[in-house]
């Protein structure tokens, strides 16, 4: 089965959309009326809008300065993007939402908050300073057809902490953390550091640890011993901040454009990167489940909230001593919570944070609260007991049958080979890095296709047996692959680095391009068995 086909399987795409569509209907029909009736939006979070359901899965990329956030994103989408600026200067650093668009354009923050099709309608309370630092970049990019990516400003290191941002940075992070499907937190293996702002940023992520994936980036720049130390230090620091029962998943990687340095944990990096990429690739498949989970979480909070508000209403005297009774009730809130849990059989975990609730209640007129409305509560119970349960089989079905849901990023990364996809692939006939196979050099998997490749080569009229970069480039452009991919192919195939391709190098280039067009992954470095036989000795000695 071709990997490319997974990308646009209309039937399975329809199933995912059906679940999302049904969740939206249930929200408007069952939940929203209760939220409005009991002023839920004032106490907890703004109401969902269409964009919250239609939204593609979002990935939030965060980390300290120069941990490689922007470079990581470029790696994911295989292209430069407008407004991407790589550098350490804090003042020019923006929140950038990268989204799919048929034409390239940049939408400034202020315009984003008024666009009903965008999932950023309620960021305006963060103020103008923030909105000036927020933009959406739309580009026609394959990867972005299935996910959106949020690039964030670098978190300040200890030395730079005096610079003020002019807006509540952790609050903005929290807003995004609540809405995204995945949070990628990057650390630099080369210089691990925990600043004040980083610790505050962690606070913003609390409660969303399940979305978090930590990446120890640039791991090829340290030796194995250093890597072990840094990994240990990172796990220890994370353990102090996030008190989650499960151990946090930390990936070792080297996501950046520079060629990877040879190191003894090279293979570990490749496997780890592949794990992380497949996690991201599965986001669209899991997005419906994530939305369902969030809706259930919300519905349970709404139920607890309705009981709290109606309880307070019942307790209020009709005329006298309203103000003192109100303060008394706020003071008593922890006890009231327990009472409701027992009387109404609402689990303690569904209740909001008591202190925050007390603060919010201070400014409220309790006499305007509503009493319990049985038909609204019955509708909510139906949502939790049967409506949502009816949707579950549809989602489980996907898991059981392992239907090829529309994956993203298949073959779109400059990633590594994926062994399972290369079983019938000439690339994989000789496993690399296997000492026993190093002697077995007489086989060149490209050989059997070479006549076909030679035909193209000689048609491009090589001079003295070689094609110049310009000529190869012209031909390569006809494949319509992104420039970043083509330049990567060029780098891999110009084995002797003379800026020209001879017939063997050109064969490697076409072979890689063919593999890429079939949806395979480009290797980061040319595997030794793909190196043309005439150039092998040099490369082998380079590797030592
Ligand atoms: Mg950046
Ligand atoms: Ca060459």
Weakly predicted, low-confidence segments: 1-11, 399-439, 538-544
- Number of DSSP E strands: 10
The global form is elongated
| Separation, N- and C-terminal Cα atoms | 38 Å
By DSSP (H or I, 4+ residues per run), the number of helices equals 21
CATH architecture identity of the largest domain: 3-Layer(aba) Sandwich
* Percent helix: 40-55%
Determine the strand fraction and express it as a percent band. Answer: 5-15%
| Structural class based on helices, strands and sheet pairing | alpha/beta
Summarize, please.
The protein is 47% helix and 9% strand.
How do the helices and strands line up, and which of them pair or pack?
Layout (H helix, E strand, L loop, with lengths): L2 H4 L3 H28 L2 H4 L6 H5 L3 E6 L5 H9 L17 E6 L4 E4 H4 L15 H4 L2 E6 L8 E4 L17 H11 L2 E7 L7 H10 L6 E6 L6 H18 L8 E3 L13 H16 L1 H33 L6 H10 L1 H12 L9 H9 L11 H28 L48 H10 L6 E3 H9 L5 H11 L6 E3 H15 L18 H8 L1
Parallel strand pairs: 1-5, 1-6, 2-4, 6-7, 7-8
Antiparallel strand pairs: 2-5, 3-4, 9-10
Helix pairs in contact: 2-12, 2-16, 8-9, 12-14, 12-16, 17-20, 19-20
Bound molecules: magnesium ion and calcium ion.
Calcium ion binds next to strand 10.
